[in-house]
Design a protein that fits this description.
- With 377 residues, the chain is α/β, with parallel strands linked by helices.
- It folds into two domains: 167 residues, 3-Layer(aba) Sandwich (Rossmann fold), CATH 3.40.50; 198 residues, Glutathione S-transferase Yfyf (Class Pi), Chain A, domain 2.
- It is built from eleven helices and 15 strands.
- The strands form three sheets. A six-stranded antiparallel beta sheet has the order 2-1-4-5-6-7, covered by helices on one side. It has a six-stranded mixed beta sheet with strand order 8-12-13-3-14-15, with helices on both faces. Strands 9-10-11 form a three-stranded antiparallel beta sheet.
- The protein is globular, with a radius of gyration of 23 Å.
- It starts with a strand and ends with a strand.
């Protein structure tokens, strides 16, 4: 998978710019605040259909303009492809693939696959379980539209169930329901979600659990490479079902979720939200059996996060037959010389985009794009 061309029209600080990329390593070179990250962001948007930096699409439009556009050409094992994304102020964005409009983001996922890493990705290790779930969901959604659909359906059901639980909690506090029959009717209404939400919980759990098990050996190997075998990285999926799981017995897994929701039903009603399920799951990351989040240095945390991201390259290659695009935004300056050199060796596996204020040493077959105030020089 190779991106050949990119055109930005009124995107962030770019007015009307075109870029031609090399099939190996592309260095986006320039001082801080010139637009390097904006360029990389536009590529990642073409993979996910949305920005991971902007709160709303209108933030992506140059402040002087009413609309903007990203136009990206790529070559895959299946042939050439073109992605066009239009942003309009006060209107919903529109997306075309090979000149054909799509109606849902899910139709875009998998057209362009990217692994993105920046200093902000340290939150994958340091911050909340939500960030680690997002890591799994982005990867799985890029390789499986079925997973993306299950996740969307689960989140909609969860949102509806939580709204009902919240209302039920508020009503109980006001002691409006004195009749047992009325209370029981409300409980039955909440309980109706149990079967459907268990079905989607089962599918999400199986996908995530399988993903982490597949990721483990790659992440361990990458981390050993980056640290010269000085450290051993371990990752484990911490789900609602913590006991031994037989992935072949899917009926049993769904039954376990049904029992889990049933067991926590009264607690959910008391608290006003769903306390168990895939939306509460996490990943435990350890180095030499020590919890990385709470007890390791920032350097170790950064290397652990990078190892997980680079392991994604192999997982996506394994599942799709070709490597995704690797995007490294201002990462090299955060690493010591040894780990920087080790990372550079990974760039030969796939088309890579690296933003930097200085030209990195040790890279071969590179294409340099110099940026100044949103323009190529």
């Amino acid at each position: 998978m190779i991106i050949t061309k990119l055109k930005l029209k009124n995107f962030r600080n770019y007015n009307d710019n075109s870029f031609v990329f090399g099939k190996n390593t592309n260095i986006i070179l320039g001082k801080n605040a010139q637009g390097k990250t904006n360029l990389l962001e536009s590529i990642y948007i073409c993979a996910l259909g949305k920005s991971v930096r902007a709160h709303k699409d209108s933030d992506l439009i140059n402040w002087k303009c009413e609309n903007s556009k990203i136009d990206l050409d790529l070559e895959k094992s299946t042939g050439k492809s073109k992605i066009e994304i239009y942003f309009l102020k006060n209107k919903k964005k529109s997306i075309k693939i090979n000149n054909i409009p799509i109606k849902k983001i899910g139709e875009l996922l998998g057209e362009l696959r990217c692994v993105f890493f920046s200093p902000d990705e340290l939150k994958l290790i340091k911050e909340s379980p939500e960030d680690r779930r997002r890591f799994m969901d982005i990867d799985l959604s890029q390789t499986s539209k079925i997973y993306f659909n299950y996740l969307n359906k689960y989140e909609k059901l969860l949102n509806s169930r939580n709204k009902l639980l919240k209302k039920f909690k508020e009503v109980n506090k006001k002691k409006i329901f004195n009749e047992t029959s009325t209370t029981e009717r409300k409980k039955r209404k909440v309980s109706l979600y149990k079967s459907k939400i268990s079905k989607f919980s089962e599918q999400i759990f199986i996908s995530r659990y399988s993903f982490i098990n597949a990721l483990k050996p790659y992440a361990t190997k990458v981390h050993a490479f980056l640290t010269n075998n000085a450290e051993n990285l371990e990752i484990d999926y911490q789900g609602s079902l913590n006991n031994q799981i037989n992935l072949e017995d899917k009926k049993n897994i769904k039954e376990k979720f049904l029992n889990l929701y049933k067991k926590n039903f009264e607690k959910d009603i008391l608290l006003g939200y769903t306390t168990v399920g895939p939306h509460r799951d996490d990943i435990k990351v350890s180095i030499n059996s020590i919890d990385v989040k709470n007890f390791c240095s920032q350097g170790q945390q950064r290397t652990a996060a990078l190892s997980l991201k680079l392991a994604e390259l192999e997982i996506i290659k394994q599942q799709t037959g070709e490597y995704p695009i690797l995007i490294l935004d201002d990462v090299l300056s955060e690493l010591d010389e040894n780990r920087r050199n080790k990372l550079i060796q990974f760039c030969s596996k796939t088309q890579t985009f690296i933003s930097s204020t200085d030209l990195p040493k040790g890279l071969k077959n590179i294409n340099i794009i110099r940026i100044l105030n949103g323009k190529t020089i």
